[in-house]
Specification:
Helix content is 35%, strand content 23%. The chain is an alpha+beta fold. The chain is built from five helices and nine strands.
Length: 239
C-alpha cells in the first residue's frame, strides 16, 4: 500500500512539474537573451536510429537529439492519441535519446528545447522526427526482383502510409516488371509459364545481344577457315 501511494505521489508531482514548466515564467526574457538562446541551439538536431536485438533484427528506435547546449531542457511528445508518449529527455554531453519499440505505426515526435534561465523558461526551438514503421508489402515476391526492389513500395521502412491494398501494389509492381527488361531477374519465379519463359529469353537476348552476334560471326569465320584448310590438305588425297 505504501509503495502504491509513493508511486502515485511521484507520478502526480512529475506530471504537475512538467505542466508547471510549460507554463513557466518568461517575464524576464529580453530580446538579447532570446537571440543568444537561438544562436546556442542553431546546430541542435534530432533523428531516429535503429536499435537491434542480439540476432541483428530491428527491435525499436532511439529518438536522438544532438548538440544540445548546457542550461537547456528537452521535452518530447507524439502527435497521436493511441500512441501518446511524452516526457523529458536526459541530456549528457549535448546528446540524449528516448527509446520507442513500436514497429507498426508511423507518427511524429515534437521535440521542444527550453532555456532554464530563471524567469526566462523560453521555448527556443522545436524539432520534428517522423518515426517509421516496417512495410509488410516489402515481403512480396514481386519485390525480390532487381527491377522492383528499389520501388518505394518495396522499401522495408517507410515514413509515409501506402494508401493501396497489397493486391493493388503487386499489380503495379508486376506491370513495372514486365516493362523493364534491362536487368536480370532473381532466382525467385513470378507467374512462371510460357509468358515468363518468353520474357526471360527476350531479356537475355537484349542484355547479351552484341555478345551473341560476335560469337556467331566468329563461329562462321572459324568454320569457313576449317573448311579451307580441309580443302587445301585434301589436294593430294581424299577429304
Amino acid at each position: 500500500m505504501k509503495k502504491t501511494l509513493n508511486f502515485a505521489l511521484t507520478f502526480l508531482l512529475g506530471m504537475f512539474g512538467v505542466i508547471g514548466f510549460v507554463k513557466a515564467d518568461t517575464s524576464k526574457c529580453t530580446s538579447e537573451m532570446k537571440s543568444e538562446f537561438s544562436k546556442s541551439v542553431a546546430s541542435a538536431s534530432a533523428s531516429y536510429e535503429f536499435v537491434y536485438d542480439d540476432a541483428g533484427n530491428v527491435k525499436g528506435f532511439d529518438i536522438t537529439v544532438y548538440n544540445i547546449p548546457d542550461k537547456m531542457n528537452v521535452l518530447y511528445s507524439t502527435n497521436v492519441e493511441e500512441n501518446k508518449k511524452s516526457g523529458s529527455i536526459k541530456i549528457e554531453n549535448g546528446k540524449g535519446k528516448v527509446y520507442d519499440d513500436n514497429l507498426t505505426d508511423i507518427y511524429s515526435y515534437s521535440i521542444e528545447i527550453y532555456s532554464l534561465e530563471t524567469g526566462c523558461n523560453y521555448k527556443v526551438k522545436t524539432l520534428k522526427v517522423v518515426k517509421p514503421k516496417r512495410n509488410t508489402y516489402s515481403d512480396s515476391v514481386y519485390c525480390s526482383y532487381d527491377e522492383t526492389e528499389k520501388s518505394s513500395y518495396c522499401e522495408e521502412w517507410i515514413t509515409r502510409e501506402i494508401n493501396k491494398s497489397l493486391d493493388e501494389v503487386e499489380e503495379i509492381l508486376k506491370k513495372n516488371l514486365v516493362k523493364s527488361t534491362t536487368t536480370e531477374a532473381t532466382s525467385k519465379c513470378v507467374d512462371c509459364g510460357l509468358d515468363s519463359i518468353g520474357y526471360s529469353l527476350k531479356d537475355f537476348y537484349k542484355k547479351y545481344k552484341y555478345t551473341i552476334i560476335i560469337a556467331t560471326v566468329l563461329s562462321i569465320v572459324l568454320v569457313g577457315f576449317a573448311i579451307v584448310l580441309l580443302i587445301k590438305s585434301g589436294k593430294g588425297g581424299v577429304i
